[in-house]
């Protein structure tokens, strides 16, 4: 979302709802969803840098970024 005028800059689709909060670190948004996927999205472009699709259950927690690791609960 554009901070100046509130316009939508980009969207990323998930096949199921996003339940947990988003974490942002170094220009990357880490977003988990009920579709068993954790995504790393560039906040400037909306490009999905990577998607981890091996989650056993839904991502229910806000991802925690620690160095080069992403910790989340499912």
Explained architecture:
- With 74 residues, this protein is mostly beta strands.
- It is 0% helix and 35% strand.
- The chain has no helices and six strands.
- The radius of gyration is 12 Å and the shape is globular.
Explain the layout of strands and helices.
Layout: E1 23-25, E2 28-33, E3 37-42, E4 48-52, E5 64-66, E6 69-71
Antiparallel strand pairs: 1-2, 2-3, 3-4, 5-6
Task: Using brief descriptors, characterize the structure shown.
4-stranded antiparallel β-sheet; 6 strands; two-stranded antiparallel ribbon; 74 residues; globular; mainly beta
Given as residue ranges, the uncertain stretches (5+ residues, pLDDT < 50) are none
Q: Main β-sheet, in a few words?
A: 4 strands, antiparallel
Helix and strand composition category:
mainly beta
Q: Please state how the strands of the largest beta sheet are arranged side by side.
A: 1-2-3-4
Count of discrete alpha- or pi-helical segments spanning 4 or more residues: 0
**Secondary structure tally: strands:** 6
- Reading the helices and strands in chain order gives EEEEEE
């Amino acid at each position: 979302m554009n901070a100046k005028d509130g316009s939508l800059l980009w969207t990323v689709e998930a096949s199921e709802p996003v339940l947990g909060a988003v974490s942002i670190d170094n220009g990357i948004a880490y977003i988990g969803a009920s579709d068993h996927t954790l995504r790393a999205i560039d906040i400037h472009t909306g490009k999905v840098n990577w998607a981890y699709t091996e989650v056993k259950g839904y991502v229910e927690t806000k991802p925690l970024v620690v160095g080069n690791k992403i910790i989340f609960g499912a």
